Structures are given as structure tokens and as C-alpha cells.
UniProtKB/TrEMBL annotation:
Protein name per UniProt: Uncharacterized protein
Cellular component GO terms, alphabetical: microtubule minus-end
BP GO annotations: cytoplasmic microtubule organization; negative regulation of microtubule depolymerization; neuron projection development
GO function terms (MF aspect): calmodulin binding; microtubule minus-end binding; spectrin binding
Domain of life: Eukaryota
InterPro entries on file: CAMSAP (IPR032940), CAMSAP_CC1 (IPR031372)
PANTHER family referenced in this protein's UniProt entry, alphabetically: CALMODULIN-REGULATED SPECTRIN-ASSOCIATED PROTEIN 1, PATRONIN
Organism: Astyanax mexicanus
């Protein structure tokens, strides 16, 4: 019985850690995506790498 309780406790702890890790990975991915989008907009509007193109009038869509 003690081993089974210990196994359950370990599985519960493992699940909590996986949940925290997934949440952190999601946050980090979102932050990285927003950083890239902001950087791309700044380059387009400042005439950076794509100066020959006109600045977009609507929201920036990355394909």
C-alpha cells in the first residue's frame, strides 16, 4: 500500500510539473512571436530591409 501511495504522489507531482512546463513554454512562445511581429513591423515602417515596398495600410500578416 505504501508503494502505491508513493507512486500516486510521484505521478501527481509529475503531472503538476508538466502542466507548469507547458504553461511556461506557451508564454515564452507567445512572447517570442510578438517580439518577431513587432520587429518586423518596425523594419517595414522604418524602411529597413524592404524599403522598395510601400508600408502596409492594414495589419501586418506574416505568411
Amino acid at each position: 500500500m505504501q508503494l502505491e501511495e508513493k507512486r500516486r504522489a510521484i505521478e501527481t507531482q509529475k503531472k503538476k510539473m508538466e502542466t507548469l512546463s507547458a504553461r511556461q513554454r506557451l508564454k515564452l512562445g507567445k512572447a517570442a512571436f510578438l517580439h518577431v511581429v513587432k520587429k518586423g513591423r518596425a523594419l517595414l515602417y522604418s524602411g529597413g530591409c524592404c524599403a522598395e515596398r510601400a508600408a502596409p495600410r492594414g495589419p501586418l500578416v506574416l505568411v
